């Protein structure tokens, strides 16, 4: 205990909070590396300064709450309380309008800290990680509140649609390069080439294997979604890709990957995200909500938990 | 064990079942006090005798099933098997019509006992209380059954609506006093001033602190909902208030409140019930279902579980 | 361990996989008996050869994955990894069209194995069985994917409907005999008399008590649904029956039935499936999805978990 205190004194609370916050940014893509977090923060900043500020503030908020709330230091320092806040901040900021948008995004990212802690407690026995579940559910709830609270203003792009009147329009001009790079960038809601490339550099910085899996994930997703007849607009925006990228990294490279077949399991899990993305898009149609990273969470949970019973996966 | 038997003999099974039933009524608002339960029962009786009878019968049913089903005596005697039955009985009785309404309400409150027991078992490791989750889910399911079973007759006030055609109508004349008192009364589905006041007296009887938190909860909810642009009709009916009342009592005064910051955490949790209420109202719009106490359950679970990981909350 | 190896050598891997697969078929109706499985396979074959092939391939796939994936032998050999695959294969094959239908049905049944394993892990502490939850959720998700992926072609019979325009049409001519036998046959999606009777024979083969409960279950369901005003077309198709059949077998005869009141609890649980079926039909109306065995899963979980707290159930 004393040694720990001395250590934290030496590093300085300030530095450790900054490091935890940058790791909170990198943990969105399952990376525990402050430099990667910094590169990704810059990637977001160059496409939108205000979004970058939200990302930084959300990550800082999470680290400060964790640190002064008495949470286990190793959890806070790895950024594990922060990534859900970062994503909640981004998603609320991008999908809301009006003067209260900054306040709601930051309040949401504070609540995301509590929700992440709550899920850690509830799931501690299952030995399966929380992933981005708290962010997804919280964002969906706060966005839907806008239909009953006048001060929550939703962007006009989120339109509830009746499934019985739904028509699939798969036609359009494919743009492979955009689709592939956006598949990585969309992990952080980025759909410009340069942000996508910078984020990929951040991933490679943390390990070439992670970067390679990110590329395999986005390519695999593109091919699978295209063969199954997905909408071209979604393919070009990378909206079928980011869940596969996260899933293959999680299942093949990050969590409990002792099995020789782990890379294959990662590929199967990544392919499965395509129909699951299509499906969650459909479930949410009547509510006009975005799918976010729910396909990643469901597919990753499925395979990580299955491994406890089918150990060779 | 022998001492226990002698004790139960002295009190008499009859008295202990009555006491457990009255506590089942008071546990709806998280109070373990038979006199409070009696005061609240009277509060309901003066607004509707038949509703009062349903409340009493539901509570008795739960105590009898628990007692003769072999459930741990302390659980039964604290009314912990009963409050979900009381609420299920009320909600079904008020939202159904026709001659089968009494039967369905009482059958529902019997099933609520089993559901509460099931949730106690499932959640025992999480050290987070069941709250009113069983009542909410059971009531939603039984109300929806009316669309496919001719003998279940829903009140015409529950109308499914298409979210894509939804328009918010926040205008109306505020009635602060009604809004505040109904915010407490709605815990028991009461929207008349005298019932609300009597229920508040029942809460104060169990402890001035609990009564004070109930008042803070309803006031906080009113202010938050008003500032966020909530519908005036809902404000006047207290429909934004009761979840905040329950949440602040649960988080700040009843469960695991060692932390010095517990009152502040309670306030944050109570404020969070407002967007969550708005959100669940929206989720349920296409099904025409009432929100019931789901915001209380979600917000309270969130903060109670978060406390296990962020201990200073 | 050695004895086990010798044993498995004696039986031969091939035979043990066949046996596990047939038990996977019988486990759909909670029976651990290869001959019953074979009888039921024949029952399905005589109504549709291709469906029978899907059933057999799904069951084999599950046994092979379990066996070579390193899962505990006793789980695999009892067919406990297989029944969700069998049902997923059937449901996808019957509700999809087009050339990819075979591939999707078999890929789905492979994923069902992983999902079943995952749920076994997550639920192992609760001491409540997984039942058919993985199959239901997976099938719902894969069917809904068809709205966004052109190559997934849904049968035209699954039509999303707006609850606000829903009208109940209970009229029609009752056919009691069809209703009762289909109530058993629908466990395997069969609605012809001979298949239903053969399936019932398969159940009786495993034990007269199980067969008797199946008959009580379908009769009880018919009477309850009829008295509550259910639609005649659904009654004739047995669509209110199969969940009650499964539930009464599970609660009264298969799981944790020490209590003297277990048969009564089974009856209550079976009756409860009727409003729950009606309710889930309603929840799913806007998505046009079939209810499958969700009422069975919910009612059985409810009573099995409640028994841990109310032991005399």
TrEMBL record, chains A, B, C:
Keywords: Cell membrane, Membrane, Transmembrane, Transmembrane helix
Stored InterPro entries: Ammonium/urea_transptr, Urea_transporter
Domain of life: Bacteria
Keyword Cell membrane attached: yes
Subcellular location field: Cell membrane
Keyword match Cell membrane: yes
Main location: membrane
Transmembrane segments: 37-62, 74-94, 100-118, 130-149, 234-254, 261-278, 284-304
Membrane topology: Multi-pass membrane protein
Similarity section: Belongs to the urea transporter family.
PANTHER family according to UniProt: UREA TRANSPORTER (PTHR10464)
Protein name: Urea transporter
Species: Paenibacillus shirakamiensis
Taxonomic placement: Bacteria, Bacillati, Bacillota, Bacilli, Bacillales
